[in-house]
Structures are given as structure tokens and as C-alpha cells.
Sequence to fold (365 residues):
Amino acid sequence: MTSMGNTRRMMSVGLIGAALALALAAPARAGETPTAATDRNAAGWELTPTGTDARFRGLAPVDRRTAWAAGSKGTVLRTTDGGRSWRNVSPPGAGELEFRDVEAFDARGAVVLAIGEGEASRVLRTEDGGATWTESFRNTDPRAFYDCMTFFDRRHGLAMSDPVDGRYRILATRDGGRSWQVLPNAGMPDALPGEAGFAASGQCLVSAGPRDVWLATGGGATARVLHSSDRGLTWTATVTPIPAGDPARGVFGLAFRDRAHGIAVGGDYRKDQPSPQAGAVTGNGGRTWRASATPPPAYRSGVAWLPHSRNAALAVGPTGTDLTTDGGRTWRTVDTGSYDTVDCTPDGSCWAAGEKGRIARLDRH
Fold:
């Protein structure tokens, strides 16, 4: 890398770290203006040695020391030392599975979702840090294709499938993923022709609080977000300004910092296609969405609110990381590394993962 490239990298690192430090700082008193963090508090994405070339689209950091990642070739990794080392805890015999989502409860308990048609869609669970795994669900309907999963708490969770008989299928657990049941679809709106979810980042189904959950769609004439306030029994659908109308376009990732304030990102995942209006925001739980005034400049598949921040968030995709400090209204690119998904923890760390074994950590020093 040239010296100019190094300078640009240091600037982007500082911008991300400064935002994280600012988000973690005490709120300004009335009439005061928050200031950027000093260099000593700035940090940036720091790649961690994973020892694999798997592509990680599933990511579940627990805290600044513990995180899980799930990816291609049936790969599951776990760290308990902040990413300095990763342990391969992949389920035996899972090499043909594509893990696209993981939800972790702590350093020992996690649930992973494998995607695909028919029996390729599965859920596996561990209670001993990945030493052993139990398959708790295997899809037997050839029409179903599961994409994403979310948990409200340690017991209650949902997984979603692309439409079956014209409606999205929702799978539910009440015992931490030990057993699953398909919910009735009477409260699910009809899917649009060609509409589906994107298993790109584990963020096409997200929750906030004990009962609210949102589902992101694309591929249809419009890109929609569906919302349920009763853990998936009844849903309402709202059109977003993110372009769709093609199987490669739509909303790819969602993040809600509470049951009202959310961010949607997406675009067109094809490298040769532009992604205008790749971001949108809501302040009323998804009843309405408005386009970002300055959206991310390219397709983005993952998004996460910075810890304890009302306005700062990160969005990631194959061409870079973008930062917003105004709740998703405007974005600017702060890093050009390739990532598919991003998530942050309550104790002040953010993590990103993507292709070629890339997993990175961001923390305020």
C-alpha cells in the first residue's frame, strides 16, 4: 500500500473509532455540542486471524471478548479473547451446509441456521461452546427456503422462509431453539409476485424488545418491510423507497435500536449494477419509511446501530463501510474493506464479517 493509501486508511479508521468513542461517551448537557474523540480513543476495523477462507454472513458478538461467526462450508467459529484467536467449532458432517445466520446467548450457547431448498434448511444448537451440536429442525417442505433468524430473548425466537403458497412462512421456538413449530399464516399478508428475502447478512429478520419483529423483502415490484408486534402471528407490510423490481434488488438488512427507530439498507448485489437509494429510515416502527438524503454509495447488506447511540450506525457491503451520525439520513464511506454483516455489543464493541475468512473487530481503546 502506498503512503497515500496508508494515510487514507488511518483517516477512515479514525472516523469510525471517533464515532464509536462519541457514541459511548456521556451525553452532552442541554446546549452543549458533542465533540469528536481524541486520537488516543480512536480505533478502527482490525482484522482478526481466522485461519479459514469461508465466507461469514452470520455474526453474533456477545461482548467485546466473545463472538460467534457462521459461514460457508458448514463453518462455525467462536472467540473468547476478543478475536485474537478463533476456535473452529463447526458441527461434524456439516461441510455441505451454508450457514447464513447465528444467534448467540453467551460463550456456550448458540443457534445456527443453514439455508437452502428443502432439507438444506436446518437449525442446529449447542450448549457447550460448540463441542457438540444438536439438530433441532430440518425443513421437509421442498417449497420452503429459510433465510434468517432472530431471538427476542433466550427462549423465544423466529426464523423466516421465502413465501410458501404465496405467504412468508414463520418458524417459532419457545425453548431457546430446542424445538420449532411453523406458525399459522392467517395473519401474514400475501407476498408480491417474485418477492423473497435475502440470506445475505442474517439481518432480513430482526427484533427489538420482547415482541416486535421486522422482515425485509426484495425481488418484487417494490421492496417492503413487514412488521409484527406479536412475535410473528400478525403482520403489516409497508413499501420502502429502496428500489426493487428485480430478483437482485431490495432491502437486504435491517437494524432497530428500539421498537420505533430503524434503518434499512440494500440495493442491487450485482457488481456491475448501481444501487441508488440504498438506505431508508423509519421513526415509527416501520409504518412509514423515508429515503436517506445521502444514502450509502453502493449496495449494502448489513447495518448496526453503534452501542448506546441514538444517531450513529454502520452499514457494510462488499465495497466498504459507511457511517451515519444522524440516524441514517446521511452516510459517508469510512473504510473500503469487504464485509457482508456487522453487529455491535452493549459493552462497546462492533464486529464485521465477510468473504475470504474476514472477521474484524472495532473497539474504543
Q: What stands out?
A: Residues 119 and 299 are 30 Å apart (CA to CA). Helices lie at 3-24.
